[in-house]
Amino acid sequence: MLSHENVETKSGVVEIKEFEVEVCVKKCVDFIYTGDAYVAKEKRETLMGVAHMMQLQRLCDSIAIFLEDDLDPRSFFQTKKIANRYNCKQLEEKCNQFALQRFKEIAQSDEFMDLDEKFISFLIESKKTKAKEGGKCKMLLAWTKHDIDERKECFLSLVMKFQLTKMTLSYRRFLVENEPLIFESMQSLRSLTLSILDSHPENISSKDFDLTENEQLVVFDQTSQRMHCHDIDAKTWTPMQTIDQAIIQNTLHSAVVIESYIYVICRNGSFYRLEYAESNAKWEQMTNTNLQWACVVALDGFVHGIEYQNYSNVLERYDPSNNRWTRLTNKSLILAFESLVAADGKVFCIAGYSNQIGRATNQVEIYDPVTSTWSMDNGSLNEARYQASATATEEGIYVVGGYDNNRGSTLTTVEFRSSVTNTWMMLKPMKNARQFFSSCVIDKKVYVIGGNGNPANIEEYDPETEEWRIIETIQGKDNFPRATVALSI
User: Fold this and answer.
1) Which of the listed CATH numbers 1.25.40.420, 3.30.2170.10, 3.40.50.720, 3.40.50.2000 matches domain 117-198?
2) Is the CB of residue 440 less than 8 Å from the CB of residue 447?
3) Is the pLDDT of residue 299 over 50?
4) Which of 104, 223, 356, 388 has the most crowded Cβ, counting Cβ within 10 A?
């Protein structure tokens, strides 16, 4: 620019009008002299724009690497936009693979509705997309209806590419009976109708379907050495895959579900996963963690874990995309037997036993993955407890049971933290006192299973009626007490 006769040559000043970039221009100049490419997360998109304009390809490549390393369901859409705008081919491919692996998580974001037709077609048509056909169809419908006039033709062309027989029979019937977009395509209507007629008879109901699959309780039975799923509505148990012998020998401690996989962690830190929807799937051993007796939860597609039975303040995170555990910021309190739950985009570490004071605590620590920092909850539990269980709905967090050594008793008490008020309140107690057990949420109801003294009872809490009831007494099973999960079948 400065080698030609122009205003900038005469003035010696180049005005960059496209960006408010004082910090980023300085960073680019520093990079030219030092090669230092690190930049804070919130500046990366702007810095990429300035570096691209100044043709600093090595700096662009370095920023792309930072973006790849930090790719998660929250950052995906911005990272994809940067990759497309600045023609970062490797970053584009990384985003494509991430979207295929984490389809369900990104599809439930509001930003999914703004994706272009080409990318939606790529996700729907790919055989590598980690989602069931019914799930993909539901998200395609939601995306289409966001701008139905512009997207209707895309829907009609893509719906014919689904493997219809891999959708549940009841969902196909629901589409035929209730979906106006299907009515507009005789070819789609015909194909769906024929697929229903060709299917084997089963209980076909036209009940409405939301974006979630039918969720069921899954337990790990030591007696049969198999997983078993329990349909709450039908009150039936169905055997699933066997539990790998290595998992039995290393003693399964806790489990968590991410997408189509169940992840289990044993007392010695050995770590395994199973693609539960595939009947012939085999258990895979993944990278072991340094955590012993770990307690784990899923958040934003990652597994977060703490040490449960040891006094510890360590938090680790597992990334399925690279099969790697990473040590995160230590929490303040060194405790054992805490309750761990993910809610409101954060990890809550609740109560536990303090060796320093020799008793249970009622304090709550909160980890924010965006800032990588811990903070104390403004409110504490009404009762100190440890070996309790915690689970969450959109409305808030439930902490159930546990043991209070101050009183020397196993607890029936239940507390709830509202996501609106961020305060803890007491709810009606359970029917049975429990400690060292599992809890989960299905259809906004809380289920607890097992526990010292009550290994066979399953209790249900309905927030609408504010009542607990025993819904099942398990016969002939010896379940790993802290490994029950809810998953979509």
Assistant:
1) 1.25.40.420
2) yes
3) yes
4) 388
Q: What is the pLDDT of residues 231-284, one digit of tens each?
A: 888 788 889 999 999 999 999 999 999 988 999 999 999 999 999 878 788 999
Sign of the dihedral through C-alpha 13, 18, 21, 25: negative
**Degrees to nearest 5, angle at CA 370 with 364 and 374:** 25
Would you give the distance in Å from CA 102 to the centre of its chain?
9
Alpha helices (H) in 316-355, listed in sequence order: none
249-272 burial, b for 16+ CB within 10 Å, e for fewer? ebebbbbbbbbbbbbbbbbbbbbb
CATH 2.120.10.80-classified regions of the chain: 217-488
Residue 243, helix vs strand vs coil: coil
Q: How many CB atoms lie within 10 A of CB 294?
A: 27
| Alpha-carbon gap, residue 66 to 60, rounded angstroms | 10
Domain 7-101, CATH 3.40.120.10 — does that match? Answer: no
Domain 217-488 belongs to what topology? Neuraminidase (2.120.10)
Residue indicated by tokens 């006094």: 311
All residues at 6 or more sequence positions from 135 whose CB lies less than 8 Å from its CB, including other chains: 103, 104, 211, 213
Q: Is the dihedral of CA 426, 427, 431, 433 positive or negative?
A: negative
Task: Cite the residue boundaries of each domain of the chain with CATH code 3.30.710.10.
Answer: 7-101
* List of residues 6+ apart from 477 with CB closer than 8 A: 219, 221, 223, 224, 228, 456
C-beta of residue 197 within 8 angstroms of C-beta of residue 190: no
